[in-house]
Design brief:
This protein has helices at residues 15-33, 36-46, 50-57, 65-69, 71-74, 82-103, 105-126, 138-151, 170-189, 202-219, and strands at residues 2-6, 156-161, 164-169. By secondary structure, it is mainly alpha-helical. The chain has one domain (2-219): Rhomboid-like (Rhomboid-like fold, Up-down Bundle), CATH 1.20.1540.10.
Length: 231
């Protein structure tokens, strides 16, 4: 199921959402311009590699605290392919504006980063000895989806489903997305030689979604709402 747009009105311009989309695309263009060796070095330095934390905790002098913490933020703006970045930005474009409208600009930015970090923490806990770098905005966007699921479950999402285009309640499409990622994460956890496998970080999606669903009400609605809808 591919979402096309939603019918939930917003009452402000989502400047932070636009900024995040633009920044992610700009950084991917930078990645795309690099040679293969430079790109590999970039990904390993600024992506989250779970085994680095294991080495740090064991007392290895190879990695500093900054080298462990910084990738939790920088990895949120790196992507592995055109399909990866386009898919992520498309979901962020559709669902992020309404969450920003509810939280307000600054709180939305903090919320986005925090749920992204918590998503990466979930991935690391579930893959502690993996040497494969984890990167992408998917975890943070999963947090946005979790927030949307809580805030606007009855909003309708125009969805492309095989040869049909239909309006689907948000709780169905986002609930389906969460269950699919949870089951995929469980299957991946049972796979042989999972520690060094790459692929999709399903547990980051699960952790991000749950974090977003739980935290959006903690952050709370912004004080001022505009009396008109912005299409």
């Amino acid at each position: 199921m591919l979402p096309i747009r939603d019918d939930q009105p917003r009452y402000s311009t989502p400047w932070v959402n636009y900024f995040l989309i633009g920044l992610n695309l700009a950084i991917f263009f930078f990645e795309w311009a690099l040679d293969a060796r430079s790109l590999e070095l970039l990904v390993h330095q600024f992506g989250v590699v779970p085994s680095h934390l294991a080495l740090f905790l064991s007392g290895s002098p190879q990695y500093s605290l900054l080298a462990i913490v910084l990738p939790f933020f920088t990895s949120l703006f790196l992507h592995g392919s055109w399909m990866h970045v386009i898919g992520n930005m498309w979901f962020l474009y559709i669902f992020g504006d309404n969450v920003e409208d509810y939280l307000g600009h600054f709180k939305y930015l903090v919320f986005y980063l925090l749920t992204g970090v918590l998503a990466m923490c979930t991935h690391m806990v579930m893959n502690l000895h993996s040497t494969a770098p984890a990167l992408g905005a998917s975890g943070a966007i999963a947090g946005v989806l979790g927030a949307y699921f809580v805030l606007y479950p009855r909003a309708r999402v125009l969805t492309w489903f095989f040869v049909f285009v239909v309006w689907v309640p948000a709780w169905i499409i986002l609930g389906y997305w969460f269950v699919l990622n949870f089951l995929s994460g469980t299957a991946t956890a049972l796979a042989v030689q999972r520690q060094n496998m790459g692929g999709v970080a399903f547990w980051a999606h699960v952790g991000g979604f749950i974090s977003g669903a739980l935290l959006v009400k903690v952050f709370g609605e912004r004080r001022m709402r505009y009396p008109y809808a912005v299409e």
